[in-house]
Specification:
nine-stranded mixed β-sheet; three-stranded mixed β-sheet; 12 strands; 25% helix; globular
Length: 224
Amino acid sequence: MNRMTRAENLEWRVEDHPVDYTEALNFMETRAAAIRDEGEPECVWLLEHPPLYTAGTSANTDDLLDSRFPVYTAGRGGEYTYHGPGQRICYAMLDLKTRGEDVRRYVNSLEEWIIRTLAIFNVTGERRKGRPGVWVRRTDIGSPDREDKIAALGVRIRRWVTLHGLSINLEPNLSHYEGIVPCGIAEHGVTSLAELGIVITMPELDMALREAFEEVFGNDCKTQ
């Protein structure tokens, strides 16, 4: 089942059940083309996938350690990542011709979206140069020098319309990451809000994502 709400120029879609990865790719391609060619509203799609791995355009085959789940070629930037239940995936189909034709600024805005979302739950997310995604210091276990990734991002831009987006770990099975070297970074781990002791529901995370999105990007494509 799909729930939709629409601002003037932006549609929010929220899925109640895991979405097949190929179905998601097809939807993004179709919607991105419609945004550019037919003036369809931008779209932010919140969903989960069944357990799977995706390979970005920079993926190193040596980083696929155990193909225990299906592996998909994603077409986005980045390397290998995992998607599965308990992880909120946010696919953003936004029109950068209206928002600003600046890829670096867009990626920075995605990171800021994650950081502000985490802050709502009193979690400090940080950027790290040379390490994509958003990271947290493990002060919860008395190891402030240890940093684990809590959110990943990967984008593709076609005719200045964005595809793919980001994922935040709410409560996925973290052992599923053992089949890959996440984002090609072997010396750091992966965590989740649940592992940090944050007990929230997916709808609560969705509400925070929407609040933070509107702070960073505005409610519709005329805002930024």
